[in-house]
UniProtKB/TrEMBL annotation:
InterPro entries: SpoVT-AbrB_dom, SpoVT-AbrB_sf. Residues 11-57 form the SpoVT-AbrB domain. This is Putative PemI. Keywords: Plasmid. One of its GO terms (molecular function) is DNA binding.
C-alpha cells in the first residue's frame, strides 16, 4: 500500500508532517476515537505504529 506524506507549516514557521492511515487498517488494529493511543517508532528504516493497550502517563 502506498501513500503520501503531507507537510504543513504553521503561522509561526514550525513544520510538521502527517501520514494518512487507511480506515480499514485502523479498524484491524482496533483503534477507536475513545482508545486511540499509539506508539510510533523507527526501526530498520521503517515506521512502526503499534496500538498501546493501556495508557501509561508520561509515555
Amino acid at each position: 500500500m502506498k501513500g503520501k506524506v503531507t507537510f504543513n507549516i504553521s503561522g509561526s514557521g514550525s513544520k510538521s508532517a502527517r501520514l494518512t492511515i487507511p480506515a480499514a487498517l485502523i479498524e484491524l488494529m482496533k483503534i477507536t476515537e475513545d482508545n486511540r493511543e499509539v506508539e510510533i517508532t523507527y526501526e530498520d528504516g521503517k515506521l512502526v505504529v503499534e496500538k498501546v493497550s493501556e495508557y501509561v502517563e508520561g509515555k
